Amino acid sequence: MLRDHVREHLLHQIEKGNLQMEQTLNLAKIARELNLSVTPVREALSQLEQSEIVVSAPNRGFIIPNLNLNILQDLYQTVSELEVLALDSLKESVAANFEVKTTVYTVKNRLEINKRLLQLGKNKVLQRLVLNLHTKIGFYEGIYLKDKLLTDSFLQQWDSIQNAVLEENIPTAKLLLKMNWISILELMEQRVMLNQNVNF
């Protein structure tokens, strides 16, 4: 759909640094750039507003808000708790067939790996909720981490999670998954603190 195309375009422009925090988004300008009417642009921005990537401001239209560090912490904690909950709904026998071969653990493929793990579960509502939050996390990580190659420790963490799932040792997988999210949050906090536009 056109609005999805516009949404991906805007996310890409933000991640590239072409759109800045606190910048007002001009619907007519975006529509001209994409050779579209303003309707799909407005629909795309409304979708991004639901994910809290943009906000509507009186007399200003849509703007990209500064990152609030407290919200970032809440976001990562919420997603980690929901993903841990999702592990409880893994389909029997399916977990034993789950395996992701990767020797490169990057910001870009990290959420894709987590998505594959989520899809093994039975709870589709939970999956949609978490994947919506992944959109916001991917947005922030795209800005602050870019496509950074994460350290070997992160790859080792994922290998341990995967092994626990394959062995159907769900309690261990849940603990390791939560630790993985905490590690990523700590990395994000370090990068965000270097940015002078952070709100508390």
Descriptive notes:
The protein has 200 residues and is mainly alpha-helical. The protein folds into two domains: 2-63, Orthogonal Bundle (Arc Repressor Mutant, subunit A); 69-193, Four Helix Bundle (Hemerythrin (Met), subunit A). The chain is 64% helix and 4% strand. A three-stranded antiparallel beta sheet has the order 1-3-2. Strand 2 and strand 3 form a beta hairpin. Helix 1 packs across helix 3 (38-50), helix 4 (69-87) runs antiparallel to helix 6 (124-144) and helix 7 (152-166) packs antiparallel against helix 8. The longest helix is centred in the C-terminal third of the chain and has 24 residues, at 170-193. The protein is elongated. The chain starts with a helix and ends in a 7-residue tail after the last helix. The mean pLDDT is 80.
Q: What's this, in brief?
A:
Helices cover 64% and strands 4% of the residues. It is mainly alpha-helical and 200 residues long. Pfam families: GntR (PF00392).
CATH architecture of the largest domain: Up-down Bundle
| Domain count | 2
Overall average pLDDT: 80
Structural class: mainly alpha
Could you list the spans in which at least 5 consecutive residues all have pLDDT below 50?
A: none
CATH class of the largest domain: Mainly Alpha
CATH topology of the largest domain: Four Helix Bundle (Hemerythrin (Met), subunit A)
Specify the overall morphology. elongated
Rg on CA atoms, Å: 18 Å
**Which strand-content bin applies to the residues?**
under 5%
Helix run count: 8
Distance between the termini: 37 Å
Characterize the biggest β-sheet.
3 strands, antiparallel
**Helix/strand order, N-terminal first:** HEHHEEHHHHH
